[in-house]
Amino acid sequence: MTEQVRRADDPGAMAAAATTTHADSAADVADAVRSARNSGTALRIVGAGRWSGAGSPAAGVRAALPTLSLAKLSGVVAYVPADLTLTVRAGTTLAELNAVTAPNNQWCPLLAWGDDEGTVGATFATATAGPCADALGRPRDIALGVEFVDGTGATVRGGGRVVKNVAGFDLTRLMVGAFGTLGVITELTLRLRAKPQVDLSLCVQPARHRPDSGSARLGASALLKAVIPPIACEPIDARLGAAMGLNPGCVIVRYGGNRALVDAGRACAEAVGSVTEIGAGAWSKLRALDPHPRRIDRATVASSVARRIKQRFDPSGVLNPGLFGEPA
Amino acid sequence: MFPWSDADNSIVDPLIPVLQAIVGARHVTSRPSELLVYENDGLPGYHMRPRLMVAPGTRDEAIAVVRALAAADAPFVARGAGTGLSGGSLADGIVMIGMHRTRRIIAIDPVARTATVEPGVVNANLTRAAAPHGLHYAPDPSSQTACTIGGNVAENAGGPHCLKYGVTLNHVVAATVALPDGEVLRLEAPRNDEIGYDLLGAFVGSEGCFGLAVDVTVRLTPNPAVICTMLADFMTVDGAAEAVSAIIAAGIVPAALELIDAGTIAAVEASIYAAGYPTDAAAALIVEVDGPVAGLDDDVAAIEAICRNNGARTVRTATDPAERARLWQGRKKAFGAMGRVAATLAVQDAVVPRTKLAPILRAIAEIGRRHAIRVCNVFHAGDGNLHPNIPYNGDDPDESARVQAACREIMELCIAEGGTITGEHGVGLDKLPYMDALFSPDSLDAMCRLRDAFDPSRRANPGKVVPVHRCREWMAAPGARP
Predict the structure, then answer these.
(1) Alpha carbon of B441: minimum distance to chain A alpha carbons (Å)
(2) pLDDT tens, residue by residue, A132-154
(3) B105-222 has CATH 3.30.465.10 classification
């Protein structure tokens, strides 16, 4: 009954799918969409298959649909490190993305909830944020341009490959978070950042600490208000603490910048409580635990404008039907 | 230009008493002499006269006006302060909704760091109102002392400090929007705990084609503890452009990183906005860093070293507010200062990859020489957002033709180098001819479909942003309004 959305591997759904088509190119995607449309069927769009489907009651129905997988549509299209922009095909995994940018000391600082086996396309289609999103950018702030195939089979580009762009209506923001219901993302251009010179992760045990989430929230709030803003800050409740081997009621916090800035950040943390240095691996553990489940924003997806957008971008209901609870 | 521009007064004239009843007689302007002031925006060279201008004073009046226009099936254009640089708010014989009277700051929440404002609030006035809380509104178009938040939302406006803080899109958290059919819709940025379409993201930057924002909630940004503004001057434009790329590549994110070339320096220094820029330099960079005290000196030292390695002659550092304000004044008033050079100004807004700045600036200079026109550059170098400005005599048909030819060549060059035609000014009317070169017919058609979802009757700011011939459904429907 719950509408809460949880990320999960979904092998059952994959196995139950009638057929799976692997697209190797945007043209393959367009062919698949057109042929589905012509034959009156619909498609379930997946990247690496890491999402179980927005918690929609229709998820079970969707699992039986023919699947269009983007996992093989991967690789870098363009990367000029000094421009801090990267264009990749949608099926590129976050791990592959990291491997390309790391040698240049750059990153896409999204660190999306889940793990690095997920694809770039799915991460942005689902607008999956991560612990650094509030400080360094959410998916809508990071995506500069998009190529997608809409529900009519048309291949469309929005935005571009430069860091600032207002040419034309914003199809990029339209695609980010639409869960593939308006178009199948085939390529994305992302804004990268230089990795911080110094990157420090700390576990902070707030003074007057109690082993509950209230203590953690107060601690996190104090850290966020301090003179040096952290690049990530997450309160640890009982569930997360048990899974991560940390005391419930503590906060994990991350500072990035030059040495003087990060040292000042550590001093801010020490003013909030007792501090232990932890490795960056803690963030991977936290990401896998998916601490921020989401719900479908019914008012928005059912609004008049949203219904008209769906009608105009996917008039035959080919793309992920029923995912947002609309009649499948 | 538009089929309805031959003053189809049979639609508009019966509206006058209806609109007067909503906003009061003195806020409906229909005499041609009084409408003269609404013929232009901030970009000289385009003139269009609205049939009438209606200025609602409140949110409810604005909604009522939109509903009255919907009932009459009348097209309209919304306008803030008329400071736009793309001809986007010009109305050709149709109704203009002037939002300049809706200038109330509805609420400032210093804890949540947000402000809710009416769309006619002037950008700089919001920052002034937030100052007692140690906050400011970060996007700062150079017209910030005049331009409105509503206009900023329509254009997804930028500004020098968007390099570090992001453009308007990144600062709008919600808006109440009157759709052209009169429906009032609340649009919110997707929250971390929600899933859904980013309709607000689509609305911001839609250039008045999706509807009318009647209130806007924006994020306010804490004022930095320290601000340090540097001026570095170079004997070659290449040196300045290479320094820009090197600063960004070093991982430093300055609050702003602006390039001013010799032509612009000459215009500024000869004007009342003189800022003390060295007039014998080929280019100068304004680099600003801000943030907590800790670590800032290291960034300043690193930037100075990079500038000197790339041939900077001098690097001046200003931290006191008066000296900083003077350095910025020349930059922010540069467009105005060009009024001394010639009466008309072509303003471009292309964005190119930062690493190609030096060769592209050389190529632009060559295009200027070839057409015997004067190109003055003053731009957001850290974003690669060029503003090649061309002052010219608009009454001279030969010079005007050369300027038009040069503008097209500059645009084609920027597109060929992987750039875009506008970074912050919008397409409006001015960039419309270049949309075909940038986007495929399928992409332009998709944009038309998105617009159609917000405005199925196609009455909001008609004829702007996407060339009409690219909207297939529109062209297919016989007798359809373009």
Answers:
(1) 9
(2) 999 999 999 999 999 999 999 99
(3) yes
